[in-house]
Structures are given as C-alpha cells and as structure tokens.
Specification:
Number of strands: 8
CATH topology: TIM Barrel
Distance between the termini: 13 Å
Shape: globular
Bound molecules: D-xylitol-5-phosphate, zinc ion
Number of helices: 9
Strand order of the largest sheet: 1-8-7-6-5-4-3-2
Order of helices and strands: EHEHEHEHHEEHEHEHH
Number of domains: 1
Largest sheet: 8 strands, parallel
CATH architecture: Alpha-Beta Barrel
Radius of gyration: 16 Å
Length: 221
C-alpha cells in the first residue's frame, strides 16, 4: 500500500503560505493537509475556501481539506469550488444534527466529484463510522483532540487504526486510505504505519524540521 505524507499547513507561516506550499511540495509531500477551523466546533479560527482557492494553482499535489466545523454540509460547495480534492467531515459535528447527516454530507461531497472521508475524535469508537466506510474514500482517525498543532500523540489510537484496517479489509476495501492526524513524529510514524494507517498528517514534525525533505522521507519510511 502506498504511504502518503500530508504536511498540515496549520503549522506554516500564514503570511507566507504560497512559499510554504511550494516548499513542502519540493520536499516530497504527497498531499497538502488544510485544517479548516470555525471557532465553534474547535476554539480557533483558521481559514476558509479562499485559502484553498489561492493555494490551488501553486501546487500539483492533492488538497486534503479537513473540516473542523459545525454544519459541514453548508460549506462543501465553497471548498469543492475552491479546488479541494478530498474533504473530510467530523462524525461529532454531523451526529449533533441528525443520524443521517454524515452519510448525506459524504454523498453531497461526492456529487461535486470530490473524494470524501469521515473523521472520529480520539474518544469516539471507530465502530461508530463503520456504517459509512463503504461511502468513504478515506477515513481519518484523530490522534489528538482537534484544534491545535504540536500536541502529543495519543497511543490508544493505534488499536483503533488496527480495527479500521481490519474492517476495511473485511468489506473488500483493503487499500482504503486510513489517515492519522495529530502528534505524528519521525519516531512514532513506524508504529502508526504498522498498525495499518497509510496517510500520515504531520504539521510541526515537517514545518518545524531543519530539513523538511528528511522529515518527510523519514515519516514515509
Ligand atoms: C489538529 C489538526 C492537525 C494538526 C496536526 O486539530 O487537525 O492537522 O495540524 O499538527 P501536528 O502534526 O503538529 O500535531
Ligand atoms: Zn487536520
């Protein structure tokens, strides 16, 4: 299975975002992970569709848009039009609205020709999103509570990664993308991949590195 490294631009200098995107592409990144926060689902506010639209022409890499927002369905159109290649939405934000909202939002994302994924927080069983696995191009398991870069990886998530991979295999999707986000470092990447994840988000581990290309290679393994 192809291992992909997705640097999170949350850890970049927002006043020089274009340079940051070009730099991680040059350093060998596979995806650009865009953390969208609304100040409600999570405390901070980061950016909206305009940022995605502005970085779209600067890179050939896929833009992996992680929506940490309430009412995600209302924002899909903006991010799809801006050029997102994949949009992930939180189980928790959807569940508050209605039991079907997550499945509906995933279908809605696909209706724009954009790939879709469901996200669970560290304290939510991965089984809760098993019903939507068949709809998802990717599932995202948070390994920190969302909101901030630079937090410590929660090791209990390794067991959830294993369960997610086993379930993907059991439904005939052995190559499904399983993404892990939060606290990924050069030291724990091996264990995360061994558990069954193949898409590793890394914010501080890439943008904080002296040598971004070494960091990305080391995380990819
Ligand atoms: C956290 C974000 C992450 C974050 C990861 O809410 O979803 O993508 O940027 O940053 P690090 O790799 O520093 O934990
Ligand atoms: Zn993220």
């Amino acid at each position: 299975m192809q291992i992909k490294v997705a640097p999170s631009i949350l850890s970049a200098d927002f006043s020089a975002m274009g340079e940051a995107v070009r730099a991680v592409e040059g350093a060998g990144a596979d995806l650009i992970h865009c953390d969208v926060m609304d100040g409600s689902f999570v405390e901070p506010i980061t950016f909206g569709g305009q940022m995605v639209k502005n970085i779209r022409p600067l890179t050939k890499l896929a833009l992996d848009v992680h929506l940490m927002i309430e009412h995600p369905k209302t924002q899909i159109k903006f991010f799809a039009d801006a050029g997102a290649d994949i949009i992930t939405v939180h189980y928790g934000a959807c569940r508050r609205i209605s039991p079907d909202y997550l499945a509906e939002t995933l279908e809605y994302i696909k209706s724009f020709g954009v790939k879709c994924g469901a996200v669970v927080n560290p304290d939510v069983p991965v089984e809760n999103i098993f019903p939507v696995f068949p709809q998802c191009d990717m599932v995202l398991l948070m390994s920190v509570f969302p909101g901030y870069g630079g937090q410590k990886f929660i090791p209990e998530v390794l067991e959830k990664i294993k369960k997610a991979r086993e379930y993907a295999v059991s439904i005939g999707r052995p190559d499904m993308d399983i993404e892990v986000d939060g606290g990924v470092t050069l030291n724990n990447a091996e264990a995360i991949k061994k558990a069954g994840a193949n898409v590793l988000v890394a914010g501080s581990a890439v943008f904080g590195a002296d040598d971004m290309s070494y960091a990305i290679r080391k995380i990819r393994g």
